[in-house]
UniProtKB/TrEMBL annotation:
Belongs to the short-chain dehydrogenases/reductases (SDR) family. It comes from the Bacteria. Keywords: Oxidoreductase. InterPro entries: NAD(P)-bd_dom_sf, SDR_DHRS6-like, SDR_fam. This is SDR family NAD(P)-dependent oxidoreductase. One of its GO terms (molecular function) is oxidoreductase activity. The lineage of its organism: Bacteria, Pseudomonadati, Pseudomonadota, Alphaproteobacteria, Hyphomicrobiales.
Length: 268
């Protein structure tokens, strides 16, 4: 569903943005797809990375033409080539959004060590590695904004069945804080957005797979009711937060987090 109340401005005119995770697991608006849409609407030139070409193409169908780069962020060689390709295409990278992430089920007793390592690579390891590629260029120009996409799983234990995701998203926050200090004097800002329960294709297509439609309505209603404002957020909430933090309007904001959870973590 589109964000019909949104009137685009020119907050990011002249900026060039690299969005990592510019597709979505399903049809509709995942966080990365909505981020591409809003950053473009605010005037930024956008380049998008994703491992899934058809997900990138679907984003393009929704938002219009943008530079698409297929890359598995876990593969260092592919990541290096993709950042170079993005730099070539954009000329410079003013904004870097690290949105790739995802969870696998498993608690401390059941999760295999290999799955733990892969979850760390998928949720925080590649962010460390892409920062090492992009920050030196931003530092040279004394300007840049990085936004990492976390999760409330990194700050609260709503469920124990995603031990690696939870630990990796917690690490992502500290990676952002610690790196922000290192580059603060060089004009580069790093922040983390922290979505809570969101109504995105991840929920509608993956979590509700195998449920019949009546169960699905109940499932959404149950999730909505857990949120103090009475409704899950959506990908637009995340995209607008990213757009603000990446803009010069947030020029004094660095090393911090913006929680987008309708008040949910207040209750935990
Ligand atoms: N959707 C939610 O409810 C929710 C809640 C909290 C946090 N988040 C976070 O938001 C971010 C985006 O989530 P979403 O649900 O909107 O995304 P999604 O799962 O719909 O899409 C993720 C995209 O990342 C791509 N991707 C996955 N692994 C990749 C890899 N190794 N290399 C390159 N691309 C890869 C996928 O192809 C997909 O297009 C994630 O970091 C997630 O942890 C989501």
């Amino acid at each position: 569903m589109q964000d019909t109340n949104y009137k685009p401005g020119a907050m990011l005119t002249g900026k060039r943005a690299l969005i990592v995770g510019a597709g979505s697991v399903g049809s509709g608006w995942g966080n990365g797809r909505a981020i591409v849409s809003v950053l473009r609407a605010e005037g930024a030139a956008v380049c998008g990375i994703d491992q899934n070409l058809s997900a990138l193409q679907e984003t393009e169908r929704y938002v219009g033409a943008f530079e698409k780069i297929v890359c598995d962020v876990i593969d260092q060689h592919e990541l290096e080539n993709s950042v170079l390709a993005a730099q070539r295409h954009l000329g410079q990278i003013d904004i870097l959004v690290n949105c790739v992430g995802g969870s696998v089920p498993g608690d401390i007793l059941t999760l295999a060590p290999e799955a733990w390592l892969r979850q760390f690579e998928l949720n925080v390891g590649y962010v460390f590695r892409i920062l090492k590629l992009v920050l030196p260029v931003m530092i040279k120009r004394k300007s840049g904004s990085v936004i990492n996409v976390g999760s409330i799983a990194g700050i609260r234990c709503l469920e124990s069945n995603a031990v690696a995701y939870s630990a990796a998203k917690a690490a992502l926050i500290q990676l952002g804080r610690s790196s922000a200090i290192s580059v603060a004097r060089q004009g580069v800002r790093i922040n983390t957005v922290i979505p809570g329960l969101m109504n995105t294709p991840l929920v509608t297509e993956r979590l509700m797979k195998n449920k019949d439609p009546s169960e699905a309505v109940k499932f959404i209603a149950e999730r909505d009711s857990k949120v103090p404002i009475g409704k899950m957020g959506d990908a637009w909430d995340v995209a607008h937060a990213v757009s603000f933090l990446s803009s010069d309007r947030a020029k004094s904001i660095t090393g911090t987090e913006l929680v987008i959870d309708g008040g949910l973590t207040l209750r935990c």
